[in-house]
Amino acid sequence: MESIRLDFTYGLEAGQILQSLSEGKDVAAAEGVKKDLERAYRTLLDGTGAGSDFLGWVRLPSRIPEAELSSMTEKAEAFRKKSRLFVCIGIGGSYLGTRAVVEALKPRLADRIPGSPALIYAGHHLEQDYMAELLELLDSHDYTLCVISKSGTTTEPAIAFRLLRNHLEKKYGKEEAKNRIVAVTDKAKGALRTLATEEGYATYTVPDDIGGRYSVLSPVGLFPLAVAGVDIKGLVAGAKSMQQELVADRIDWQRNIAARYALFRQLQYRQGGMKAELLVDFDSRFHYLGEWWKQLFGESEGKQGKGLFPCNAGFTTDLHSLGQYIQEGERLFFESVLSLQRQKKRVVIPQDARNLDGMDFVAGKEMAYVNQKAEEGTLMAHSGKGNVPVARILVPGLDACHIGQLIYFFEFACGLSGYSMNVNPFDQPGVEAYKQNMFRLLGKPS
Ligand code: PA5
Q1: Helices 400-420/31-46 angle, 10° precision
Q2: Whole-model pTM?
Q3: Element holding 171 (H helix, E strand)
Q4: Helices 66-82 & 232-246 angle (0-180, nearest 10)
Q5: Pairwise CA distance, residues 39 & 422, whole Å
Q6: 308: helix, coil or strand?
Q7: Cβ atoms within 10 A of the Cβ of 181, count?
Q8: How far apart are CA 355 and CA 363, in angstroms?
């Protein structure tokens, strides 16, 4: 299978360094950062760094038991048969991976993958009107639900689950409600585990050694994805092929795309003075992958006063809003572009004899060709006059396998990049600050 690749044509000085490395040449200007990444690589693979209790994701794709995939697929099939809607309750790492994959793979204007229940999210915020509308909608549709929380104590999903459990029990009765709930949580700890055991819900376990933002290839993502109609075996196979490409005895700078991407980022951060990374796409199916990526890099690197601020934009739409700033505003960021190489369908722009709209210069061309030229033109402008260095991540197609590759690629690059800056990429102590204030204001007993 064709794999995702990197292109540094528009990468400016760092791009030339990366190009030289991929030709097997040594580059003095990158020596320090390269050494840090080589050290980080060993730390990650030997499990000798901070947060080493959370490295289960590194070898997860090759270790997912076939029996677990089959059990999830079977249970998912039972849910698919009895639901028109499937509610997925979770927040942060317990939600974003699922949404990223589903949004990338479902048809553009449909609310679901054909033949599957529509996936609705809950517990990812505290919006009252959203919940009221959801409860109303669920009155008139058959549904099942999955509640996902590793800690089993997170406020947003716990409140959503309380409301939805209540609704489900009123609608179907307590016994049938049980057949419509799956909980994904810790094997022993947390309120959700206690509740699931008391009530007799079906459960899947979040492995101890995998943190939220690295958990999409565990039951956290795989079960809801199977219900949503995603080919989870293809997703895992893609991730496994990327694991095989990236995990070795040492970094092969010609082959290891995660190390090359991490090097590009670190060169921008340390030598280019950049403060932010802008992940852009020219296909909105990547939008939620960008949301997932923001959490992955933001929570992994943003600590001890360090880290690139991760942000995203969708082109060409946002060229008509952010384009001006990117071209001529403060030089704060570099761009990483998710560049989709193949569309699933064909649309040719028709001839028009009168040409009143002046668009005849593209008549007979596919829209994808115009989008591709927009991408090239944009990257030339940004990296040229705009002086914004650009790295391209070339994605051969939007299917489960390539999304699996992308997920593992970003996870690995993130672990490496974090360790190379001497931060623990697997904790998120800063997330607690708002919660403590909120709990105090709400009068939560300590
Ligand atoms: O990355 C993380 O660990 C967090 O974003 C969590 O995923 C998020 O807070 C949800 O936590 P939990 O699954 O415990 O409800």
Answers
A1: 110
A2: 0.97
A3: helix 155-172
A4: 150
A5: 10
A6: coil
A7: 25
A8: 10
435 is catalytic: yes
Q: Whose CA is nearest to atom 5 of ligand 1?
A: 92
- What is the identity of the amino acid at 437? N
Q: Tokens standing for 436?
A: 């403590």
Exposed / middle / buried, residue 402 (Cβ in 10 Å: 0-12, 13-18, 19+): buried
Q: How many angstroms separate the CA atoms of 96 and 313, rounded?
A: 17
Per-residue pLDDT of the chain (446 residues), as tens digits, is 799 999 999 999 999 999 999 898 988 989 999 999 999 999 999 999 999 999 999 999 999 988 889 999 999 999 999 999 999 999 999 999 999 999 999 998 998 999 999 999 999 999 999 999 999 999 999 999 999 999 999 999 999 999 999 999 999 999 999 999 999 999 999 999 999 999 999 999 999 999 999 999 999 999 999 999 999 999 999 999 999 999 999 999 999 999 999 999 999 999 999 999 999 999 999 999 999 999 999 999 999 999 999 999 999 999 999 999 999 999 999 999 999 999 999 999 999 999 999 999 999 999 999 999 999 999 999 999 999 999 999 999 999 999 999 999 999 999 999 999 999 999 999 998 999 999 999 999 98
Separation of CA 297 and ligand 1 centre (Å): 14
Question: Pocket around ligand 1: residues whose beta carbon is below 6 Å from it?
Answer: 91-94, 149-151, 154, 157, 211-213, 299, 428
CA distances from residue 430 to 64, 238, 298, 303, 433 in whole angstroms, order as listed: 31, 33, 11, 8, 6
Ligand 1: atom nearest CA of 220 is 13
Amino acid at residue number 346: R
For residue 118, give the H/E element and its range. Answer: strand 118-122
Best mutation site among 54, 94, 301 for ligand 1, i.e. most ligand atoms within 8 A of its Cβ? 94
